[in-house]
Design a protein that fits this description.
Blueprint lengths: L1 H13 L8 E7 L6 H13 L6 E6 L3 H11 L4 H4 L2 E4 L6 H14 L3 E10 L14 H14 L5 E7 L5 H13 L6 E6 L9 E8 L5
Parallel strand pairs: 1-2, 1-4, 2-3, 4-5
Antiparallel strand pairs: 5-7, 6-7
Amino acid sequence: MISMGQAAISAALARFADRGPDCHLLAVDATCGNGHDTCFLARQLAAACTDSQAYSVLSFDIQPAALDSARRLTDSLPEAERGRIMFLRQSHDQLTAVLHERRAGLFASGVASRLAVVMYNLGFLPRSDKRVTTRKDTTLASLDQAASALDPDGLLAVHAYAGHPGGPEELAAVEAWCADLPFAKWLVMRYAACNKARNPEALFLAWKRGDRS
């Protein structure tokens, strides 16, 4: 499922690659964890953008250990990519406020921003305190904000798990949220292994329809 989500994100970013030098692309890792998704987004944006096109990755996590681990992982990236990452010790339900501040700064510089991808890998930080998890209420609040801020042709990618306390409720809530998105404006796909009884998981890909859909 990880590779399926990554392929969808690459396709989404490619649709924004021809927006011109005055378009600053934004991607969000809403659950930074150990930084693997943040690195992936930085690499994909670097590959998708032209030399004259700017981009940023906004990476959220409430745990200092996660952000420290992610910073160490991003040391492997070229300096040009590493410098485009903004680590935020904030909950992902603060997305609207962070995007407003970031977009206001870009607008003041005469640059229009486009939010192309928001990526969620729900659950807990591997090899850490499993009592610290994403929660249904903050996840749904973040999804509402992401759906509103996402540009047409953009993608929400949500990988949800049921193998931790609160996980089954969170997965069910995400699925219900996705099912409520209007079909005229969104195309939502759900991927899950039908023969995995223990610790089920699902990948949700929600495309915001654009003029070219």
